[in-house]
Amino acid sequence: MIFFNKKSRKKKLSVELVSMRLVSQEDMDSCLQELQEKSSDDDQLIRLLERKNLITSFQAGRLKSNEFDGLVLGDNKLMYQNASGSFARVYRAASLQDGRMVGVKVLRQRWAQDPETVKMFRREAEVCKQFQHKNIVPIYDVGFQDDTHYFTMEFVEGGNLRDFITIRKKLSPVEAINYTVDICEGLEYANRLGYTHRDMKPTNVLMSIQGVAKLIDFGLAGEDDASGAGEAHQRAVEYGTLEKSTGAPRNDPRSDLYFVGTIFYELLSGKPPFPRTKDIEERKRPSRYSQVPSITTIEPDLPESVVNVLEKLMAYQPVQRYQSATDAIQDLLEVRAQLDDAGTVVKPAAVNPSAEQELKMVIAPPTILCVENRPKHQDVLREYLTKHGYRVLILSDVERAMNRIKENAPDCVVFMEDSIGAGAVEAFNQSLEMDADLAAVLVLSEKNAEVKKSLQKTDRSRILVQPIKIRNLRAKIQKVLQHQLNDSAELTAH
């Protein structure tokens, strides 16, 4: 960790950021020139770098707290935190070699001193480095730096299956089958190489914006003849209980298929087959897995063929379960061929064509472009909207904003008229005309409130008048983005 005295903080900070490769020398020189006469405070430099999009809000927050370690791991600079679990955090990172986006999984410091956890973490990386399959997220490299264990992997532009279910509640039988087939095909491939997963759950399935399910987190993966401490780890409690109570061997591929069934159940109903709990004793009860309520009590209209596949996946006794992922895939595909995307029996197979479009809307974090030229207001907008899950771009002038919309449109654009002037109104109207999928919000100054009467409001636009609270602005952004999703669904239906 690095600390600076007041006199030379800015200079030392600039040298450190360049040496870390977080900022280029050219960009740093430009920022230092701009600040030459204004301030010697390193916080000012950090804010300027953030406003110019040379560092992210995540990086800025770490720098302001003097947390330099771990911002660059190997040849990758961490951009944002994507996910956080009990044992590790996952970051979106940019490769310093070629600029491509990668995922970086970092073991939490409190577990870095535990040899068993470190072994499991590194094993996940080494196991997955062998895998080359469209339904398994590939691992690129494993490293240790600044007392930090990490590995890099493909960055999946999307979210996990739990996020998707939370938003969608439940899927059509065909959609649920599609994602379950993806999961089974990933398992089938791992099984051929002698590995089981041993931690199948929705958070360990990533959803790409192309609608492909990909398996992650093989930390408990075991070879068929393996013995060891996997069961002792708390994440293996469910598997251990199921196998012990049914007499199944450890690393039985059929155990993975039971928990694939729990995912399929949740995709079809929007609800897990048994309550999620951290209570170890509850998770050790065999009845939790043997006495699962039939899905027909929740979804009585499901086709019998779908229910039959689900029940076979989740059969308590292994001999009554599918004996391999291959067998499960075959039945799933046969059932899919009989169903349309509404779940009714038909002759031809049908697949929901809206999957990619919906995934882009509901899983990938929406990008908000804010047109605002006041540094303090830029900081507030960036920090608040980023905190609430949006990707935030800030531009200071209308012309650049309109060019950005033409070249690579965001999901929503916000024009702050009291900041950028009268041109905001024209830009607001033009942006809605330019891109039929773009949502737009115009914030008028109090003195120009009358302008609101002359503007036409649409489902994908909102007009606000100062003074407003930032949470109210966020609520309007959410409204217009929701209309985008609804419009997308309607277009697909027709």
TrEMBL record:
Record GO biological process: phosphorelay signal transduction system
Domain Response regulatory: 367-481
Keywords: ATP-binding, Kinase, Nucleotide-binding, Serine/threonine-protein kinase, Transferase
A Pfam family reported for this protein in Swiss-Prot or TrEMBL: Pkinase
PROSITE patterns according to UniProt: PROTEIN_KINASE_DOM, PROTEIN_KINASE_ST, RESPONSE_REGULATORY
Origin: domain of life: Bacteria
Signal peptide (UniProt feature, chain positions): none
Residues in Protein kinase domain copies: 76-333
The keyword DNA repair is annotated on this UniProt entry: no
Any one Gene Ontology molecular-function term assigned to this protein's record: ATP binding
Database matches in SMART domains: S_TKc (SM00220)
Protein name: Serine/threonine protein kinase
Species, as recorded: Gimesia maris
